[in-house]
Amino acid sequence: MQVIAAPGHQVPKQDDPHTYIGDTEPADVPDTSYYRRRIAAGELLHGKRTRGSAKESAKGAEQ
């Protein structure tokens, strides 16, 4: 599965705690409980980052 760190976070990889998933490039990781817990905690986000973020979409809906 593809994940990216939430803005301002760096999440250690399960198999190498000295290597981090950052908030700029998506990482391909296995679907394990470690990464699912990080997603549930809000530290990781699903999928690839796109040009239009969810915040920008929400701003457009408010207007």
Describe this structure in words.
This protein has 63 residues and is α+β, with helices and mostly antiparallel strands. It has one domain. It has two helices and five strands, in the order ββββαβα. It has helices at 33-40, 54-62; strands at 2-5, 11-12, 20-21, 27-28, 44-46. Strand 2 and strand 3 form a beta hairpin. The longest helix is centred in the C-terminal third of the chain and has 9 residues, at 54-62.
Order of helices and strands: EEEEHEH
Q: How much of the polypeptide forms β-strand, as a percent range?
A: 15-25%
Which segments are poorly predicted (pLDDT under 50) over 5 or more consecutive residues? Answer: 55-63
- Biggest sheet details: 3 strands, antiparallel
